[in-house]
Design brief:
With 411 residues, this protein is of the alpha/beta class. The chain contains 13 helices and 14 strands. The longest helix has 19 residues.
Length: 411
């Protein structure tokens, strides 16, 4: 599957510092300096509707990690999946009377357009669930050979008890696991399972649903095994960062970690990073509630995509927050001010703000601090007091490159 086109990333006058990011599993900041290329997996969309601000906040948030690594001089191997066959997609296709393949292709293309408009660096490998079915089948066979897969009727389940470290990503107690599992696509009440928390890895063919041949009979993959197999294929074991929204901590990332422990004999990732949830009208933004603000709708209303991205940057990636239209219009005004400051050519010294911004982003992707530093530079440059004796003739060019390379804002 193709990704989207990549924006140019300007070179910066100084290298960025080593990057640290919050690890959900330990609750601590972790140095994610790689030995070779930095490897990151960010869980992708299920393409049954347009990209909303909750999605955008996650992908822009971890785009900052990609950029911070690059600023520090590292190559980055970034992988993202597309769950282009799954229950929500099939249910939506049936409801709106559209072929599921057509729906998936349409919404995936809209996602590409949104990411390109927001200047998110594309993954090196953009992999659909359907095209990865041979990888999934092979990985299920590895789990089966390790004694970690069992048959229930015609479905196949991964046994969480096969991994002694199960629960190490989320840190949840069992009762919380059971409750969340039921809310997020699990089936803890199904009779005959060895453990209510066991997750399906191969779903037998259902009437009217797509299916593929496999050693386990005709069917299709479960959700968690898809990401496990793709990540192992393209990144290998113990890659630097597994990322996604905080609603993926359990069961999704927990299951991926356990399937990797058992099937590959290695940690799935060294660090698990999670973005906060975005609310609207007082509740978490979600398709089931319908309280969504779509990136494409704003773009089609002639809103500058850089203003959308700036709103996202003004909230720390781990924070839960609520979308406010007033913030968007304030961001538009901020960009006008920044562009005016950049148009002057000379300005307040550039190197201090370059260092401040790169330090902020290397410290758990602190984009709000980076934005404040740029805003302070613009205010000083536009002001007159004390600037005449301390003017950098190359400030505009260097700060423009900084805003582009580190924050992803094209001005």
């Amino acid at each position: 599957m193709r990704a989207w086109s990549a924006p140019d990333v300007p070179a910066l006058p100084v290298p960025g510092p080593p990057v640290k990011i919050h690890d959900t599993a330990t609750g601590e900041l972790r140095d994610v300096t790689p030995q070779g290329a930095a490897r990151m997996y960010v869980c992708g969309i299920t393409p049954y509707d347009a990209t909303h601000m909750g999605h955008a906040a996650t992908y822009v948030g971890f785009d900052l990690l990609n950029r911070a690594w690059r600023a520090a001089g590292h190559e980055v191997t970034y992988v993202q999946n597309v769950t282009d066959v799954d229950d929500p997609l099939l249910e939506r296709a049936t409801k709106v009377k559209v072929d599921w393949i057509e729906l998936a292709e349409r919404e995936t293309e809209l996602f590409r357009q949104d990411m390109r408009a927001l200047r998110v660096l594309p993954p090196a490998h953009y992999v659909g669930a359907v095209e990865s079915i041979p990888l999934v089948i092979s990985y299920i066979e590895r789990l089966r050979d390790a004694g970690a897969v069992y048959r229930l009727e015609d479905d196949y389940y991964f046994s969480v008890s096969s991994d002694p470290g199960f629960g190490g990503v989320s840190g949840y107690e069992r009762e919380e696991m059971l409750a969340v599992f039921a809310e997020r696509g699990g089936d803890p009440e199904r009779p005959g399972k060895q453990d209510p928390l066991d997750c399906i890895v191969w779903m037998a063919e259902r009437p009217g649903e797509p299916s593929w041949e496999s050693p386990f009979g005709r069917g299709r993959p479960g959700w968690h095994i898809e990401c496990t197999a793709i990540a192992q294929e393209y990144l290998g074991g113990s890659f630097e960062v597994q990322a996604g929204g905080s609603d993926l901590v359990f069961p999704h990332h927990e299951m991926c970690a356990s399937q990797s422990h058992v099937g590959a004999g290695a940690a799935f990732a060294q660090t698990y990073a999670h973005a906060g949830m975005v609310a609207y009208d007082g509740e978490k933004m979600s398709k089931s509630r319908g309280n969504l603000v779509f990136v494409s709708h704003l773009r089609n209303s002639d809103v500058d995509p850089m203003a959308i991205r700036l709103v996202l940057l003004q909230h720390h990636y781990r924070s839960d927050w609520e979308w406010q239209d007033a913030e968007l219009w304030s961001a538009v005004d901020t960009l006008v001010r920044w562009r005016k400051a950049l148009s002057l050519g000379a300005g307040a010294p550039a190197l201090p703000v370059v260092k401040t911004v790169l330090d902020a982003l290397a410290d758990d992707l602190d984009a709000p601090a980076a934005v404040r530093a740029i805003d302070d530079w613009a205010a000083l440059t536009l002001g007159t007091s004390g600037l005449a004796d301390n003017t950098d003739p190359d400030a505009s060019r260097q700060v423009h490159q900084l805003i582009d390379a580190a924050l992803g804002l094209s001005l």
